[in-house]
Amino acid sequence: MVASLLAADYPGEIATPTPKALIHLVQRRYGVQVSYSTAWRGKKEAADDVRVTPEEGFRLMYWYMFMLEKMNPDTVSYVEVDEEHKFKYLFFALGASIEGFRVMRKVIILDGTHLKTAYGGVLLVATTQDPDHHHYPLAFGVVDGENNESWFWFLEKLKSLIPYGPEIVFVSDRNFSLLRAIAMLYPLSHHGHCIYHLSQNVKGKVIGVNKAICAKKFRQCARAYTEAEFLQLYCDFSSTYPSARLYLHEHTEIKHWARCYFPGEKYNLDTSNAVESINGVLENARNYSLLQMIDAIIEKMIKWFAKHRKASAEISTAQKLVPFVEKELHKTCKEAKLLVVNELNCYRLEYSVIGSDGLQYVVNLRSKTCSCKQFDIEKYPCVHAVAAAREAKKEADPEIQLHDLCSKYYWIDLWVLTYSRTIYLVPNSCQWIVPEETMKRLILPPDYDVKQGRRQEKRYASAGEDRDKGGKKKSKKSKKPTGTSEWLDNDGDQN
Ligand SMILES: [Zn+2]
């Protein structure tokens, strides 16, 4: 009854009302009261009818991936089976996002989360952030768990799409298998620990003090722009929390978490929570079969691409920078007007600026640097650089424009390109046309640990993460980072 009601009211849709809402719906429509489990079963049945059952999902994997690639040119997918033709691993990346990433900041965030499907398994996600601070997923994988073999396999496939070099930066938790695979496959790239995860480890090492403040103070140290600022903050932190300092000393290398020592270009990105936000978006989809989950991922990406494509198209041609940076510079300009600027060298465009804190900063507009280091790291002008640019415009170089001082990744021209390609859903299986050799390739469901997959709903903790006595990871929903990562607090739909 529930399934047929859904088929009639929500034809072809996987995302249907919650079981609780369905109980009311059935009551109103038919005057019959159904239990929660009946409503849940009906919801699942309806979802299976839209796509296929979990077993069929594995059987049709090659067919589905063929259609995904056909609908979305340049999409790449890999399916790995064992010697008995049982499903082992899946990797896919849409052509649209592979192409978009070419004109984006080269910071890749990696994470894994457990699936709630009948066969369990783990969803691996490689994502990034567009210059306007929105989710931008790059690639997805489905594997048995986060281990040496699975992370190596996933990153090897990713490497075939994204050329490796020193410009590529990874941000993730400290999962040993993940770090090992990065070191082996991307030896020239830099890796940053997720500051949020590390702050959770650190606060677990202190007793008799306010743990939340300890985590916050650690994040402040990690996010210091200059070495001098860091040393001062870290000295205070170390004397207040000696056990936390000892933990950091014994388990981490400072360059992997302190922004001022990080050797690569990480911009504002320092937490892997972007992936967890994506997982939040896929919360319901993770209950369905694999193909339904992939449908839900693609559906969400279609929405994001359409939304941001439209937003970028609606911006006036006079505006050169993405809205986030435009807004930041707008705020900065007000403060910059009040600062005292002295020219140091008109050929080299060097200026001395007295900041609102009374300290002196040296700005070089040619090399796009400031001694506060914010300009160097974020790649758009800090308040001192804006003040210097105002002076330069008056005196030395009337052609100087603020957008020329920003990384090209923040230019609207490039932002538009990231969303230029359309993403298409895979049609219903009755509309598939698959070549004979693909039709012959069948896959059996895997031997994943079903019980484990069901019990462990969230991702495994990385090195040092706290768990409660029941073994379940502590909820962090209400404890997300603030400041530069505030965008992560929003539901994925908002982005
Ligand atoms: Zn500055």
Automatic annotation (TrEMBL):
Residues 470-480 have a biased composition (Basic residues). Residues 453-495 are annotated as: Disordered. Residues 453-469 have a biased composition (Basic and acidic residues). Keywords: Metal-binding, Zinc, Zinc-finger. It comes from the Eukaryota. The keyword Membrane does not apply. Residues 361-393 form the SWIM-type domain. InterPro entries: MULE_transposase_dom, Znf_PMZ, Znf_SWIM. PANTHER family: MUTATOR TRANSPOSASE MUDRA PROTEIN, POLYPROTEIN, PUTATIVE-RELATED. This is Uncharacterized protein LOC104709736. It comes from Camelina sativa. The gene is LOC104709736.
